[in-house]
Design goal:
The chain contains 15 helices and 9 strands. The chain is of the alpha+beta class. A hairpin with a 2-residue loop joins strand 1 and strand 2. The chain is 49% helix and 9% strand. Keywords: Endoplasmic reticulum, Heme, Iron, Metal-binding, Microsome, Monooxygenase, Oxidoreductase. Belongs to the cytochrome P450 family. Cytochromes P450 are a group of heme-thiolate monooxygenases. They oxidize a variety of structurally unrelated compounds, including steroids, fatty acids, and xenobiotics. InterPro entries: Cyt_P450 (IPR001128), Cyt_P450_CS (IPR017972), Cyt_P450_E_grp-I (IPR002401), Cyt_P450_sf (IPR036396), Cytochrome_P450_3A (IPR050705).
């Protein structure tokens, strides 16, 4: 294709992944070959693109030619109908059904559940405070996020802070643990035809017992709600309502399999991404105490002691700037991907049908062509005076275009409510255990390899 690329061995880029991790490899590839290069994801050819103009064409202008994402691993049957996996017209229809469940009115209704989860987070963190020791915050952020997901998706009160062995929490974490299925992932990358075979055999990257657990949870919830006329405001109920309304209006609602798949997808998409954003935000403001103090003063001025909610967090302009800058430096996902559904040309480059496009987010968000002093934490980039200068296709923590993250509003709300509540109650301080520039893990998420360690003081 005339695209610069390293010469791949039989294993493609896998040895480089193992040595440098996805982030390290993406940085090296971009530095060595430029913003458009070729890689072999195992034996799967792919273009690695971090050119903002090309990204705009792929994600927005020519979206109809790049509607679908590429699946590199097989899905168990229960996940085949998730909005992240379905394609073409099926995706378009499902997206139209799910999107209204994240409306402003629905977000407002979920705030009481989110605040309850925050109260538990505050209580648990307060019990761990030691004036002489740092606290590892990652597990606390995970427990909070899982509590929120259980409450807002299934109406369940799991209190994972005090019940870490809760079946919901344990099985949800197992669905996100790819280490057990590493052999399956490597095999599919080396021999892509195996993906379809394993799909047919219902062998995927989710442990079967965890899959069965969630099938039972959803089925039981569906049965209970058919018999219970009480009004619930969680994600599962909203999908059930959409299922009923659409079947009455158009003869086609969500099937039970679609409700199940998207309920589980809600867990998988929201757990790590949101908990990592909260932890990295606390890390950044601890490293920059002047930023933390300004955020605290803003909260005191706008909210005082009031609990945060969907409406009043909109008043916190500086907090929004902080979280936006955190997501620039530490976007939860290392990459986004799309697949060409026809032969096409993007900015003069011919792209054949079925070619995989990968966007290296971490690299893109630190590209000096798009960002001044890209390694610096500077919330002022996102101030009302400056944010118009940001290229929207060089900043994509939630994707871009019609197939961006469907739950972006809820993710932002859950993150902001947590940060506000924590700053109302605590001060976060850098300690000798704090890695100023965290060493990052080598997997598909941008996560601190050694955790987030900070000292915490009550206000």
């Amino acid at each position: 294709m005339g695209v610069p690329a390293p010469k791949p061995g039989f294993l493609g880029m896998l040895p480089l992944y193992a040595k440098k991790g996805i982030i390290g490899m993406d940085l090296e590839m971009t530095e060595k070959y430029g913003r458009v290069s070729g890689i072999f994801h195992g034996r799967i050819p792919a273009l690695l693109i971090s050119d903002a103009e090309m990204i705009k064409q792929i994600f927005v202008e020519d979206f109809s030619k790049f509607v679908n994402r590429n699946r590199f691993v097989p899905s168990v049957n229960m996940m085949k109908k998730a909005v992240s996996n379905v394609e073409n017209e099926e995706w378009k229809y499902m997206r139209s059904i799910i999107t209204p469940t994240f409306s402003s009115a629905k977000m407002r209704e979920m705030c009481s559940s989110i605040n309850l989860c925050c109260d538990r987070l505050v209580k648990k963190l307060a019990s761990k405070i030691d004036p002489d020791k740092a606290i590892k915050l990652d597990e606390l952020c995970q427990s909070y996020t899982m509590d929120v997901i259980a409450a807002t998706s299934f109406g369940l009160d799991i209190d994972s802070h005090n019940n870490p062995d809760n079946s919901f929490f344990k099985n949800a974490k197992r669905t996100l643990n790819f280490s057990f299925s590493l052999n399956i992932i490597v095999l599919c990358m080396m021999f892509p035809f195996l993906t379809d075979i394993l799909d047919y055999l219902n062998i995927g990257h989710i442990p079967k017992d965890s899959a069965e657990y969630f099938i039972n949870v959803v089925n039981q919830a569906l049965d209970d709600r058919k018999a219970d006329s009480s009004t619930r405001r969680d994600f599962l109920q909203l999908m059930m309502n959409a299922q009923k309304e659409n079947s009455e209006n158009s003869g086609r609602g969500l099937t039970k399999d679609e409700v199940l798949a998207n309920s589980l997808f809600f867990i998988m998409a929201g757990f790590d991404t949101t908990s990592l954003t909260i932890a990295f935000t606390l890390h950044c403001i601890a490293i920059h105490p002047e930023v933390q103090e300004r955020a605290f003063r803003e909260i005191q001025s706008k909210l005082g002691e009031r609990k945060p909610n969907y409406d009043n967090v909109k008043e916190l302009e500086y907090l929004d700037m902080i979280i936006s800058e955190t997501l620039r430096l530490y976007p939860p996902a290392t990459r986004l991907n799309r697949r060409a559904n026809c032969d096409t040309t993007v900015k003069g480059l011919f792209i054949p049908k079925s070619m995989v496009i990968m966007i290296p987010l971490y690299t893109l968000h630190r590209d000096p062509e798009y960002w001044i002093d890209p390694e610096d934490f500077n919330p002022e980039r996102f101030s009302p005076e400056n944010k118009h200068t940001i290229n929207p296709y060089a900043y994509m923590p939630f994707g871009a275009g019609p197939r961006n993250c469907v739950g972006i509003r809820l993710a932002n709300l859950v993150t902001k409510i947590a940060i506000v509540t924590l700053l109302q109650n605590f001060q976060f301080i850098q300690t000798p255990e704090t890695e100023v520039k965290p060493k990052l893990a080598t997997g598909g998420f941008v996560r601190p390899q050694n955790g987030t360690w900070l000292q915490v003081r009550s206000r």
